[in-house]
Amino acid sequence: MDFSNFLLQLLNSVQYGLLLFMLAAGLTLIFGIMGVVNLAHGSFYMLGAYLAWSLSSMSGSLTVAILLGSVLAIAFGLLLERVLFRHFYHRDHLDQVLLTFGLIYVFEEMRSILWGDDVHGVNIPAALGASIPLTDHLSYPVYRLFMSGVCIALALALYFLISKTRLGMKIRAGAFNHDMTEALGINIKRIHAIVFAIGVGLATIAGMIAAPVSSVYPNMGSQVLIMCFVVVVIGGIGSVRGALISALLVGTVDTFGKVLLPQVAGMLVYMLMAAVLLWKPEGLFKQ
Amino acid sequence: MADEALLSAKNLVKRFGGLAAVNDVSVDLWRGRIHAVIGPNGAGKSTLTNLLSGDLPPTTGSIRLGDQDITGRSPERISRAGLGRSYQKTNIFLPFTVWENVRLASQSRAQHAASWLRRATGHAGTNERAEKAIVLAGLERRRDAVAGTISHGEQRQLEIAMTLATEPQVLLLDEPLAGMGTAEAERMVALLKRLKEAHAIMLVEHDMDAVFALADRLTVMVNGQVIASGTPEQIRHDAGVQAAYLGEEEH
Amino acid sequence: MSAAKSHLEVLPRSLQLLLVLGVIALAAFPFVGTEFYASMMARMMILAIFAMSLDLLQGVTGLVSLGHAAFFGIGGYFLSLVSSDSGTVSLWWTLPGAVLASAFFAAVIGFFVVRTHGIYFIMVTMAFAQMLFYLVFDNKEIGLLGLSLRLGGSDGVYINLKPDAALFDLENKKVFYFFTLGCLLAVYLFLRRVLWSPFGRVLAGIRVNEHRMRALGYGTFGYKLAAFTLGGGIAGLAGYLWGAQTGFINPELMGFHMSAHAIMMVILGGMGNFAGAIVGAFAFEYLLHLFKDLPDIGGFRAGKHWQLWMGLFIVLVVAFAPRGLLGLAERVLRGKEKHHG
């Protein structure tokens, strides 16, 4: 493998890994703070993609679509949390798995009713449509760099929020000791709503920015969900840092695997997960 | 009795991050004697019990049970080696009957514990062991009651019965009298006296009347360390202990 | 000595009677119903076997696997791999072979997943099952140990000749129906036996309080692995029968939707006693057909959007009837028995 190819795969690995991180971070935060597992998490990714398509078709601009779509998605997430998910927090995991599995069906059908079942493409905005040359033989699409950039920006924002702000402190306290935090007068319900909104927001934005690259099609949520689970299992539930490292690891193994060992490429990530489980059954960075 | 200690723990240390919950604690248990471990909350008594039962691995130190080194072994292997433990927070099978709780405990010692096709309730050896344990713990009349429906005191008795059904040599009893009324506590103390002869017992307790009625030896822990160890008389008159613990109790 | 009474393990007399009536109705069905419906019933019986195998894990041992369909699929794919269009294969080695193949995969996967707990267990079972799903989905054939195995990829594989039973003719639909019914009863009786065996009691104890079981000296990892393997093997039996009955195996049979459906069947019927799994399988499949056959209401194609109704149904059942249909029935019948006292 020559250097250009290596660089290309490395950039793709990072881009894929960062996208996975956006999803895994939301899933792991929601589980770590509220103790709820959400199988329908992938549906928010799908929602993001479909919003990107329909809003950009209507407005003619992907940027508008992303901004407007984020607002809509977060509002939807807050509504869902208030009306539905709030009542699942105390249920056992089996119930949560089934309830959210039922939601996957409901969301898929709502998508089918609202937007139909066809596959769609989303256009990359002209400003980001170029490729920049990296080496003599290799040009890399600016849009993919943009995707990574958005993910990094959001990751930094998340880090800043959780570690450096008072809200972040309240969030961490809520994860650490629920009842005590409530006793201290902190509105735990609002914290939960905010965390849920962050999770939904990250997943939806991931879907929106990925849409031009991955296309918009039914069932795209389920495919990405399984990768997301693998990332969370390897990284350790509840650990955002674990999710980041794990996502980059998974992105790298998957991308290079497809190029170097195409026969077993699909299985490599699972073999990685199996190996991690033998060594650390609760993930690399379990809280 | 000049024979070997049944359980011998030497220089046990357990650190969580920078904090030493148990710091250089040694304990020996002999058959026919009750060794009580007392101390204020947070002294490390529960952690010590967890180290001995295998629920937590020690950071450093060693534990010997009979002629086996059990340091760092899993709880199931330590149980099979002859150590039984009861829990401070009642740790029984709530949806099962009292009888089934004890029978299941007893079954762990049966050769056929993994058999797939015979009927579990028909095995004579298992049933005998379970029967003995239930009678010893005084629960014969409650055998058909569902464990979740019996009184707190009876649940504590069931805790002990289950531990006894595995026929251990060494008993670690973690606050068996917790939450008991006077009559129940008296019954439990009588039971523990009956058990002394055949077992080596370590008793973690807060009830000082019971401790002084039962203990042959006492170890006092504060902040993870042993501050005094000896006979009840010695401990009662130890100035350091009085200052740190008993003195506060007497108020 | 009274038996452990938890999780609806012991069914009240009236319920037992209803179930016996159900079996009699099943036995009479091929003589009164059409061939089309008899085939459908045969498939429901096969799914009932699949659901019972999951009940052993979920209802009895407390292991919630989101990947159990993988072993169902392996049973079916085993049959497709040993079958050919040129001649029949014998039932008497292929059926045990399918069970052993599924059990083998369950043992290997179990070795990795049984060491996890709670939500991890759910996620890793799903992950490993998806791994197997993609293996068959992405490959029309793979080479293994010098052999070329025809997996069919996303198109699936056809099984055109039913296995040869020698003593009876499985190509005869009635014979196949009764063979399936026989398997259903055999699996039910076997699992009930296991439930009340020392092994079964340990599994129940693990579900209720695994920590205490370890403290009592039980090596719970080994027991859970054994249960996972046994459950996988029985799922393989169901998958084999499915392949023989429908003549077609595709990757969706191993997928996560299938696994989730199985969980729903077990919950819907009532967990932990195997009869509930049978009831749940029939009820779930019946509902599925009901939703898919819904008429168009004012231009809205209700049947096409069956997933919506199924999704809402799942949410409602889990939210309001966690002990399933048998749990509801038990409450109603117990109420009646009290009045007639």
Secondary-structure blueprint:
The complex is a heterotrimer of chains A (287), B (251) and C (341).
Chain A: H1 3-34, H2 41-59, H3 62-83, H4 93-115, E1 131-133, E2 139-141, H5 142-164, H6 166-176, H7 178-183, H8 188-214, H9 220-235, H10 240-260, H11 265-279
Antiparallel strand pairs in A: 1-2
Chain B: E1 7-16, E2 19-29, E3 34-38, H1 45-53, E4 60-65, E5 68-69, H2 75-80, E6 83-86, H3 98-107, H4 124-136, H5 152-164, E7 170-174, H6 182-196, E8 200-204, H7 208-214, E9 217-222, E10 225-230, H8 232-236, H9 239-249
Helix pairs in contact in B: 3-4, 3-5, 4-5
Chain C: H1 13-32, H2 35-60, H3 69-82, H4 91-113, H5 118-138, E1 141-144, E2 147-150, E3 157-158, H6 173-195, H7 198-215, H8 220-246, E4 248-249, H9 256-269, H10 275-292, E5 296-297, E6 300-301, H11 306-320, H12 324-340
Antiparallel strand pairs in C: 1-2, 3-4, 5-6
Helix pairs in contact in C: 2-6, 2-8, 2-9, 2-10, 3-4, 3-8, 4-8, 7-8, 9-10, 9-12, 10-11
Average residue pLDDT of chain A:
87
How many beta-strand segments of chain A? 2
CATH level-3 fold name of the largest domain in chain B: Rossmann fold
Helix/strand/pairing class of chain B, anyone?
A: alpha/beta
Assembly classification: heterotrimer
CATH homologous superfamily placement of the largest domain in chain B: P-loop containing nucleotide triphosphate hydrolases
Shape of chain A: globular
> Which class of the largest domain in chain B in CATH terms?
Alpha Beta
By DSSP (H or I, 4+ residues per run), the number of helices of chain A equals 11
CATH architecture of the largest domain in chain B: 3-Layer(aba) Sandwich
Largest sheet of chain B: 6 strands, mixed
* Outline of chain B: globular
Q: Total number of helical segments of chain B?
A: 9
Helical residue percent band of chain B: 25-40%
